Amino acid sequence: xxxLEGQVAERADENFVVHATWVVARTAGMTARISExxxxxxxGLACDTFNFVCRARLEPSTTEEAASAAVAHFAGQPRPFSxxxxxxxxxxxxxxxxxxxxxxRAEAELAMAMPLGQLARAIPExxxxxxxxxxxxxxxxxxxxxxxxxxxxxxxxxxxxYDLAAPALLAPHSPQWLYVGYVDGxxxxxxxxxxxxxxxxxxxxSTLISYRGRGIGSQMTWRPLRDALARGADLGVLQAAPDGxxxxxRLGYRTxxxxxxxxxxxxxxxxxxx
Length: 274
Known about the structure:
single chain, alpha+beta, Aminopeptidase, 11-stranded mixed β-sheet, 34% helix, globular
């Protein structure tokens, strides 16, 4: 498979839209606004992990007005949110517009992709590790607790999200596949795969600090890709934080651009104080 970077970026954006909105649109108290110009996902929770603005396809003449309205949506609640700007977003100076509206660059990640035909048939096993796809309430609870543990102290809104979203996430037809990695029966790692229209996007790949360095992250990345390949997916995409780039490159991912997260300054300042 040979795809131009622009095609990959478009498929990655469409996957991220499903990741951000599919559950939100099907859960009471949450809302999703999806248009050709902009996407807004609002979980109703005070947690920017589930409140997004993304996939901007704006005309230069209307960008400031549309962006201002999106920012005002969350400011009126008020709730923290993140605005993700990637390689396919328009206009190209969107980041500068957001900064004028009071947002600032919070972090940057690499946009990476891999044709799934290049996926290794097997990778080194990790002794005692079992990777399970989440299908039961107790497994979803373990996923939620591990996800919340990425914050110090653990973020209760993360647990609340998965509790509220459980019916949608556990539905057999959900495009969001959650995984928990267990070492000797103890839940220690997570991964999420959003699988839609031949693209599998990986999100929320994490391992408890005390279990890192054993190859668990590689297994948590490889297993969802294998499952998606078996279901006909041909492209894997993800957003790579600096500490995960090496793992993804070894599996075959390559960079196709940069992704920048923007946050309101007041929420950014609050995060730095915690």
